[in-house]
Amino acid sequence: MPPQTRGRRRAEVSADSAAAALLPQPSLPDEIWEQVMSHFTDNRDYFGFGLVCKRFRDLVRHGAALESTAFLWNGQPGYSSVQRVELFVEWLATRVGRPCSDLLLQLVPPPVYLGSYAYASIRQSLWCVLGQLAQQLTVLDSRGSNDLIPKVGNWTAGFSRLESLSLTSQDSGLTVTANLAGLTRLTHLGLLATIAQPEFHQLAEEDAQMASYRGARLALPEGNFLPTGLRSLRLGSPLLQTLPLQLSTLTGLTSLYLESRRQVPVEMLCDRLLPLAPGLRRLHVMSGMAPPAFLPHLAAFTSLDALDVSRNQWSVDDVPGADGMQQIVDLLQQGLAPLTNLTQPGLADMALPALPPAVTTMSGLIYLECSMNLPSLTLPAGQYLGSIVWLAVDWDTLASSAAVMSSLHKLEELCVAVLPAGTEAGATVAAVLRSLAKLPRLSALYCSHESYSSNRGVMAAVKRLQRAKPALQLKSLQECPF
């Protein structure tokens, strides 16, 4: 194609929409640009994108590689799908001949007029080349395709360089049919099926609750399908109730994350997890999957640095009697007491009336999450407070623990979740804010906007706190890393 034709074609493409002026201009040598674009035969033919991917796969097979970077397929606001494809083509071509260690691909719904078949073609073409590109691959699918991983052929054969793989499907479920054991270099694996906006508090009956989860089912193969060299594994789904039998053999695991809204039998948890106890440093068993009878078995995980059992709440059938939640505190105490190396306990949203005494004896504590429990929960005095760097609690807890606030002299980040109850809520928040000015290292405060925006006294306390600590960052709960 003559140079003048090339320029005219680019001008035509750039004039396709009002957002074109925002697009970066091609910075590639014309030869490379034409080499890629010649296989993208028509910029309005979405099936042509598959040709680009195939061409790029051929380039990679001949020794080309990508540099460490991330790419979001969903583009930017105002960009048409055509422009997103063009930007992706440009991005691919600029990476030819450079090493790659990390690739993030986000799959989102295309415009309706594209049709599902066209989108499936693009996704399959992309997948054909991904194995050639990255050591770390993260895929986020919010389209609802229920086909995140291709079901045809042994796709794992092309991923010989892959060391980290994370697959997250939102509102569509995740079905794994491939034998992942072929990914021999894989050390991190995440398989998560989530729902976008769960309204758990509005669901009164089990049937209605399960119906809301049906789009977030995690289906795993039977037998030994996991790589044996895994060091980190994440499995999560609201409906996850059966753990892979192979899990107990992955003794090289140092980090294990499990999450489900369904309770897993204690016998299964013990069978799958206790063989891993000597090597595990991080264990997350969250959101309702751990029955109370499992809590004393935590005592076996003496090598743990981090343990999170947040959002495990039980019914009266699990903990009968008026002192049911105190029984939970006692069971937690049995499990936590031997964990002398623990530095990061997560005990949020468990309806706990008090902290287990074992927490107050953890001299190396740097992280404590105990928000969204009962208003009676306090921070007892103790040396454990002096080492805490990150803390997540409620306003009521801080208000009732005012006498020990000055002991948090290493605290850097504070997340305050639940608003105080009653007519004196504003006074409670204001009192806590005044005490925060005494914390010498506090640099970030996460709380809801409603905590201070509707009360004049609270707003005044916020302003005084900001004057006393000009470097303090006031952030929303959505930004909280806890």
Automatic annotation (TrEMBL):
Residues 27-62 form the F-box domain. It comes from the Eukaryota. GO terms for cellular component: axoneme. InterPro entries: F-box-like_dom_sf (IPR036047), F-box_dom (IPR001810), LRR-SigEffector_domain (IPR050715), LRR_dom_sf (IPR032675). CDD domains: F-box_SF (cd09917). It is found in: Cytoplasm, Cytoskeleton, Cilium axoneme. PANTHER family: LEUCINE-RICH REPEAT AND IQ DOMAIN-CONTAINING PROTEIN 4, LEUCINE-RICH REPEAT-CONTAINING. This is Zyg-11-like protein isoform X1. It comes from Chlorella sorokiniana (Freshwater green alga).
